[in-house]
Design goal:
alpha+beta, Transposase Inhibitor Protein From Tn5, Chain A, domain 1, globular
């Protein structure tokens, strides 16, 4: 949690300073580089990263300022922060990477990402996979879901990929009286007639979906998509908030248009993963301990939250604009000073002489 101090701090490195550095540094991030830029010792930066103890609740408290807490979509996904050459960094492990389509060395970051009814979106909870916790990614997901609901978030739907679509997770979401949209593996078994079970990949699914009975769960509506020559299946469950409408009527009203909208909202978490790596320098750090690594990751995610706040205020058009425009004046000034010294390389004009 953010510390409450009883006397003025004399710390040279602060969270805003470190976040500003992450958002502006075009090359590798290091304590010594920030120290040189801000005329402080690199030990001041290192002490900051090892002193503080930020928590997911601190992230939520910042993110909730720019979103409508009621009626949105909560998405879960994880991403591997590549550290292919690291050996002694905390949380390091080998994980499957959708980017590389292989098992790679890195740190696994699990995030809950919220999109409100107005289209504003922010990360609201996160975990760093730690083998010492003796938990699975599904355990982390259920912990984070319970936390954000206890903190006051009131989503209508929860979305995720097939990794998080186990029956335990689906039933937990249902018990919270929430709807969901989760990807299903092609071999998941469903029933369209009592006593008959079939793999979902063998079903003939119309564009507006098909109502089925998902084994060990209950009634859902399934959709099929084709993306990059890959066939994917999704299950939708609608929250039981209006007892006057039966399941059949609710599912009949949920067609492909509504499915596409909900699917697009889930895609925001994929864009978030790309932004924190390309803009917020989340993969770039040279500290090793658990506390320092967690604080670095927190600062990078909070930097993304600030970029989303600036976008919501129309200060920037997207989270990439700040980095792209940051060095415009410096580059233009350098070109203006450098080009005159090379003018002798320009084509020379010679008047045409008639014979």
């Amino acid at each position: 949690m953010i510390r409450h101090i009883t006397r003025p701090s004399n710390a040279r490195c602060t969270l805003p300073m470190y976040i500003g550095y992450l958002l502006s540094e075009p090359n590798g991030v290091s304590c010594s580089r920030l120290g040189a830029l801000m005329s402080i010792s690199h030990d001041s930066v290192n002490r900051f990263l090892n002193r503080e103890s930020y928590s997911p609740k601190d992230l939520f408290n910042e993110a909730k300022l720019t979103v409508n807490m009621k009626g949105g979509t909560l998405s879960v996904d994880d991403s591997v922060l590549d550290k292919p050459y690291a050996h002694y960094i905390a949380f390091l492990g080998h994980y499957w990477s959708g980017k590389h389509h292989a098992v790679v060395k890195g740190i696994n970051l699990i995030t809950l990402y919220y999109t409100d009814i107005n289209g504003e979106h922010q990360p609201v909870n996160f975990r760093v996979y730690d083998k010492a916790d003796n938990k699975t990614k599904n355990d982390y997901f259920l912990d984070m879901l319970s936390e954000v609901l206890a903190w006051g978030l009131e989503p209508d739907f929860v979305t995720g990929d097939s990794w998080y679509s186990c029956v335990k997770n689906l039933k937990a979401i249902k018990n919270h009286r929430l709807g969901f949209l989760f990807a299903l593996e092609s071999n998941r078994v469903v029933s369209i007639e009592e006593g008959t079970w079939i793999q979902i990949q063998k079903l003939d699914i119309p564009s507006d979906g098909l109502e089925v009975w998902l084994r060990d769960f209950g009634q859902v509506k399934v959709f099929r998509t084709h993306l990059k020559n890959q066939v994917r299946h999704y299950a939708i469950y609608l929250p039981d908030k209006n007892t006057s409408t039966d399941d059949g009527e609710k599912f009949a009203a949920f067609k492909n248009v509504e499915f596409e909208k909900l699917h697009d909202q889930h895609w925001q978490i994929e864009q978030y993963h790309r932004a924190i790596k390309q803009v917020c320098n989340i993969e770039s750090f040279q500290v090793r301990g658990k506390v320092a690594v967690k604080n670095h990751l927190f600062a990078a995610i909070l930097g993304y939250v600030e970029l989303q706040r600036l976008r919501a205020m129309d200060v920037i058009s997207n989270c990439y604009k700040l980095r792209r425009d940051l060095f415009n004046e410096v580059i233009a000034s350098f070109i203006g000073a450098f080009a005159p010294s090379m003018e002798h390389m320009d084509p020379k004009f010679q008047a045409v002489v008639n014979a």
